[in-house]
Amino acid sequence: MMSNMNRQWRLTGRPVGEDFDSVMAFGEEPIKSPGDGEILVKNLHLSLDPANRAWMNEGDTYKAAIPLGGVMEGFTVGVVEESKHPGFSVGDTVSGFGHWEDYSVTNGEGWAKSPDLNKQAFGAHLGIYAIVGPTAYFGLLNICKPQPGETVVVTTAAGAVGSLVGQIAKTKGCRVIGITGSDEKCTWITEELGFDAAINYKTEDVPAALAKLCPDGIDCHFEQVGDSDILDAVLNLMNQNGRISMCGWISAYNLSELPAGPRALLNIIVKRIKMEGFIVFDFMDQMAQCYADLATWLDDGRLKYRVDVVDDLSNAVDALHTLYAGTNQGKLIVKVQDDPSLA
Amino acid sequence: MMSNMNRQWRLTGRPVGEDFDSVMAFGEEPIKSPGDGEILVKNLHLSLDPANRAWMNEGDTYKAAIPLGGVMEGFTVGVVEESKHPGFSVGDTVSGFGHWEDYSVTNGEGWAKSPDLNKQAFGAHLGIYAIVGPTAYFGLLNICKPQPGETVVVTTAAGAVGSLVGQIAKTKGCRVIGITGSDEKCTWITEELGFDAAINYKTEDVPAALAKLCPDGIDCHFEQVGDSDILDAVLNLMNQNGRISMCGWISAYNLSELPAGPRALLNIIVKRIKMEGFIVFDFMDQMAQCYADLATWLDDGRLKYRVDVVDDLSNAVDALHTLYAGTNQGKLIVKVQDDPSLA
Q: Pick from A61, A269, A276: which is nearest to B277 by CB?
């Protein structure tokens, strides 16, 4: 039996730096009923992603800023509890861009039924399927188009997206160098995930280490941080016709003023580099193939992941801090409430 | 009758800043004879281009650095005086990447016979044909792919390349905004060349002026300078799926240490921008179509240009200074020696 109350996190102000706590209010209100053409979703899992922080700022990004007073937004997975929409039935597992709350009413826009994944339960592998797998897949394959034998560099390489980027690059026969922030993460991506080498940016000289580890230069770079010194090191080592996939800029999301950028952009001309940004939603029309490939690679052991599950919606704000501190161990998921499909 | 001496400019050191004078030596040696498979070219015109300065530096760019003691390099147009090469005949007008000298011996690599151009003499329209036209053509059309109604921004808009970029964008039905460095240049590009608007970056607030002149945002940007503040202004105004053609970075060619880059690269992700570098030689296989289009547009009045001809090879170094000072009035060409075909 469901409770008739809906717990919610609302955004009450624009955060400064990482002080989200003072602008996020946890409360509850009665569950709404779906109108014609709508469904009621019981949210089971909430994905916490670096971009969430950017949405809290006043300016619009690739989506509108979260309005003040509005429920915080995020990628969620849930089950349809009530449907007045012809495309969804009670009991369907669905995912979409929803809200930080127990129950959501939606007209289905931005939501989809879970794909059929070689008998894998969608909600059981959120470390791959919750946006991060498609982000890694399209950002690497569609933007960088890595070729066998090429050298690929990935920042936040032990993160939820970066770890998959490296493994997908390995499926394409590339040499993969990961940049990450601890020796433990370096060991994990090389020994468990098959990266060819790793650099701990907190203890190593990144330009020197990259130069040593990339004797044939860099062909593809997957950027998630926006650190100018690391970008300069990469630009200086890039080969002719290199490709840079611009996925994230986590260094900037908490800042009100952006720092100076990389000095070495001249290389983009000299080496005919392509630097291109993307958002995973740009590739919705190719999502079925993406899920099918990810499921295949998960089945045959080519993709591994770690997931860091935080119990209960009430802990979501605390959990978001660990994402920026880099202390989460794997894809950060909030288990909103019990998932009957996994019981 | 030809003299038997060959005047040459040799690079004797690596210049610091704009002090080329102390590292360029003017001398002469006997004209060499072509061996089997070689031709002797009498150089008539020498094109001075911003990238020339970059080639003087120690590091290789998209081509090897000019060796110390070697003859200075540049795009030249000449006539074949002697041929032991099956592809060239005496009297052919040829162009290629040659040297700052009266006579060159070459095996023909990097050289081509002048294209057939609607009865236009190649050497008579070097303001278009001496690399600058193809650079503008490929950099705008192949990288930016401008669509009718889109807004295009061009830096160094009154320069040899920039002025053609804007005019080619107009042939594609775009709205074109040029950024340049004097009121006279602003007037020329708007009143004579048909740009929709111009900004004098020396007297105007570029971000404010761009925002006012681009009410629908910017779709395409053609970059030749590398000024971080202007790039930031452009990045902040770019529309979703905007394209930036990276053609030149003239601000850096004279510097030993590069300045900090643009802060606003995050826009590349948010707006899915593509920033891509190119070198005109990447498109050699499409050169015939390029020359044909340029000749057509020159014939029908859609392309206009100014050419600033400096008389005699001995004045080439002095002329190069005017390029960086921005005081040349149009495409800078050195008339190496008399051109019999134009007599």
A: A269
Give the CA distances from residue B175 to residues B75, B149, B168, B302, B307, in Å, rounded to whole numbers and listed in that order: 32, 6, 11, 15, 25
Nearest neighbour of A262 by CB, restricted to B61, B261, B276: B261
Q: Is A17 on the interface with B (CB under 8 A)?
A: no
Q: Which residues of chain B have pLDDT under 70?
A: 1-3, 339-343
CB contact under 8 A, A226 and B61: no
**Residue ranges of domains in chain B, CATH in brackets:** 5-114+306-342 (3.90.180.10), 132-282 (3.40.50.720)
Taking the C-alpha atoms of residue B155 and residue B165, their distance in angstroms, rounded to an integer, is 10
CA of A217 vs chain B CAs: smallest distance (Å): 15
Q: Which of A170, A127, A130 is nearest to A152 (CA)?
A: A170
Using CA of residue A115, residue A119, residue A120, residue A121, what is the dihedral sign?
A: positive
**Per-residue confidence (pLDDT) for residue B343, from 0 to 100:** 42
The mean pLDDT value for A259-276 works out to 95
Q: In the Cβ-directed half-sphere of A181, how many Cα atoms lie within 13 Å?
A: 11
pLDDT for position B3: 67
Q: What confidence score (pLDDT) does residue A1 get?
A: 44
Number of CB pairs, chain A paired with chain B, less than 8 A apart: 107
Q: For residue B183, what is the DSSP state? A: H
* Least CB–CB distance from A268: residue in B228, B246, B270: B246
Question: Half-sphere exposure (CA, 13 Å, Cβ side) for B203?
Answer: 10
User: If you measure CA to CA, which chain B residue comes closest to A271?
Assistant: B62
| B269 to chain A, closest Cα gap in Å | 4
Interface predicted TM-score of the whole assembly (ipTM), two decimals = 0.89
Which pair of structure tokens corresponds to residue B187? 């007037």
Structure confidence by residue, pLDDT tens digits, B8-17: 999 999 998 8
Residues of chain A positioned with their CB less than 8 A from the CB of B226? 265-266
Q: What is the pLDDT of residues A139-149, one digit of tens each?
A: 999 999 999 99
Q: What is the pLDDT of residues B44-59, one digit of tens each?
A: 999 999 889 889 998 8
Q: What is the pTM of this model?
A: 0.91
